[in-house]
Write a structure and sequence with these properties.
The complex is a heterodimer. By secondary structure, chain A is of the alpha+beta class. Chain A has helices at about 15-30, 45-50, 55-80, 95-120, 155-165, and strands at about 5-15, 35, 140-145, 165-170. Chain A has a four-stranded antiparallel β-sheet. Chain A is elongated. The chains are: A alpha+beta, B mainly alpha.
Chain lengths: ~170, ~425
């Protein structure tokens, strides 16, 4: 299943403040971080890691707009062309009556579209192997990981001891 | 934080505010003397502004109570501003007192149900007369507004100021007491405000009623309160008075403006769609009048209060830019005024028409004509309405500045202060 295995050198921190300071230090030393793992979203992490703003919400808007047009267009077609029926003496094309369903489909399309986009972009889904460095990063540890072949191991060790990582490990994933 | 962050109004601010109050007064006087026989334009303008700013101060108190009960932390840096708004309820009592006096003296014809002859001949109004009567209006307003101010807004403000001076004991008893007041106020405020909205605003269309109306008006007040807050915070920040309010806090205020604009639209639509669907003549007349005779108000209301905030504030970064946020808040504030304008004016025009027809003066007066064309002051706000609104707004801001002068802008002993100072939304 795993087409490329790589050796990862990672350190675990006990506190998110230490993690943020460590990332700043890594930036200052021009160390190339592979990824950072945290048990919960840490404020300011995107900024120090220089991550771009997610484009997921643009996808959300596009899917939502698609839902709006699908619902409104379909109801318009049904009630004016395909099967016009008078309900309660209202005109065939009764916009107020279409609004709730249009709203529902907008939300549905946006929600499902964003989930599918997210899973696709992140390469997640059923049957995908998803190696985990250390189970404690889903609990109470904050992790910075480096690829060993891209950096000098001694520099990384010095970096981890300087920034106060509680544990340092190597693992092949 | 260093320094005490005290606030004092500059001479220039005082002059500008007094200038606008003078302008407002001038507009009110001009309206009064250029009016029809029963001064319907003057009184309806007065009603709109009195209810608008009383409502904004009520909502500020409600926000403080809701946030305190929900253990909210981020808002502490703007807490003093909302406390200042809530104190305006005392002015609200005085403003509403003028309407009560007008009701007893028959100085105004805002409410059809106040006309005893009309009620006696009208089974619908007769059926409602147990609630829509002078006594309920008078004592309801005074007791309920009095409760809001004397039993909640004032003691809560006092507790908050005491906390600043005395600090906390081990038990946080001042904070606990404040929370007790908050929790008690929430149900009381929620139910009594609905009764007041029925009396003050909805009964302008005395035959009509809608169960959504109280929610709808409260949502309108809420958005107005947020719009004024955003503009005031941006102004005070620009002046250097609120260095601890960051983009993060403005982002949250912007979210409230965005979210509650949508909430208002949801209520607007719910009210509209139920009435449209059921198609009961007594109910549809409300929208029929507004769509056909007040199209600018009807559609303009949705554009200013839904389309603009929804599409502009949808993006993350527009809530974090002072310029955009200020622009949207200004548009929405004017939109909120337009919303109250369209709630009150058509009903008042109708009642005036009947009152004048009764006394045989209908043909001679402008308001007597049913609006088939645009009439400033009735089908669209005229310059006098805008001037009056800015006059009341200046009075409100002046009063709030006076309150801000009484205490440091940063509640330094609030238990949630540290959380608020370190607030980050992304």
């Amino acid at each position: 299943m795993s087409q490329h295995t790589k050796e990862v050198f990672y350190g675990l921190y006990n506190d998110e403040e230490d993690l943020l300071h460590a990332i700043e230090e890594a930036n200052a030393q021009h160390l190339e971080i592979m990824d950072v793992y945290t048990p919960f979203p840490v404020h300011g992490l995107d900024k120090v890691m220089h991550l771009e703003e997610s484009r997921l919400h643009i996808a959300g808007f596009v899917f939502g707009a698609l839902g709006t047009m699908t619902a409104f267009g379909f109801m318009t077609w049904v009630f004016t062309r395909d099967w016009p029926i008078i309900f309660g003496g209202k005109p065939y094309w009764s916009v107020p009556a279409f609004i709730p369903i249009t709203f529902e489909l907008t939300v549905l399309f946006a929600a499902i579209g964003m989930v599918v986009s997210f899973y696709t972009v992140c390469g997640l889904g059923p049957g995908v192997s998803n190696p985990i460095l250390d189970e404690r990063i889903t609990d109470d540890k904050f992790c910075i990981a480096f690829e060993t072949d891209k950096a000098d191991l001694d520099a990384l060790k010095a970096f981890f001891s300087k920034t106060g990582a509680g544990e340092v490990h190597t693992k092949t994933i | 934080m260093s320094g005490d962050h005290t606030f004092s109004m500059t001479g220039r601010e005082r002059n500008v505010l007094f200038g606008f109050m003078g302008l407002g007064l001038l507009c009110i006087v001009l309206t009064f003397f250029g009016d029809d026989a029963v001064h319907s334009r003057f009184w309806s303008n007065y009603l709109i502004n009195a209810v608008f700013f009383t409502g904004v101060s009520f909502v500020a108190l409600f926000i403080l109570a809701a946030f305190t009960t929900a253990y909210t932390g981020w808002y502490i840096v703007v807490k003093r501003i909302w406390e200042g708004y809530a104190q305006f309820l005392i002015v609200g009592i005085i403003l509403m007192l003028v309407l009560i006096i007008g009701l007893w003296g028959h100085f105004h014809h805002l409410y059809h149900w106040a006309d005893e002859e009309a009620v006696a001949a009208d089974p619908v109004l007769l059926g409602k007369s147990g609630f829509l009567n002078k006594y309920w209006y008078t004592f309801g307003t005074l007791i309920i507004l009095g409760t809001w101010y004397f039993a909640f807004a004032r003691p809560m403000r006092k507790l908050s100021l005491r906390e600043d001076v005395e600090g906390h004991d081990a038990n946080y008893s001042l904070y606990r007491k404040y929370k007790w007041f908050s929790a008690v106020f929430l149900p009381i405020g929620a139910f009594t405000s609905a009764a007041m909205i029925w009396q003050w605003v909805m009964s302008v269309d005395a035959h009509w009623y809608s169960t959504m109306f109280a929610w709808y008006t409260t949502a309108s007040w809420f958005v107005a309160c947020m719009a004024i807050t955003i503009m005031l915070v941006l102004y005070l920040k620009g002046r250097g008075a609120l260095p601890f309010v960051t983009t993060e806090h403005l982002h949250d205020l912007g979210k409230y403006l965005f979210a509650f604009s949508i909430f208002w639209t949801y209520l607007w639509f719910s009210q509209y769609m139920l009435i449209w669907y059921a198609n009961v003549g007594e109910e549809t007349t409300y929208f029929h009048t507004r769509i056909n005779e007040y199209p600018v108000l009807f559609y303009g209301n949705l554009v200013l209060n839904f389309v603009v905030p929804f599409f502009v504030l949808m993006r993350n970064d527009t809530k974090r830019k002072a310029g955009t946020l200020f622009f949207v808040a200004l548009v929405v504030l004017l939109g909120r005024f337009l919303d109250f304008f369209q709630m009150v004016k058509p009903g008042v025009l109708h009642t005036t028409h009947e009152a004048l027809a009764h006394s045989g003066e209908a043909a001679a007066t402008e308001a007597g004509h049913h609006a088939s064309h645009f009439t400033a002051g009735f089908t669209i706000p005229g310059l006098l309405e805008i001037g009056t609104f800015f006059g009341f707004l200046a009075l409100f801001i002046f009063f709030v500045f006076k309150q801000l002068e009484k205490a440091p802008l940063l509640p330094k002993n609030d238990p949630y202060l540290a959380e608020s100072l370190h607030h980050h939304v992304q």
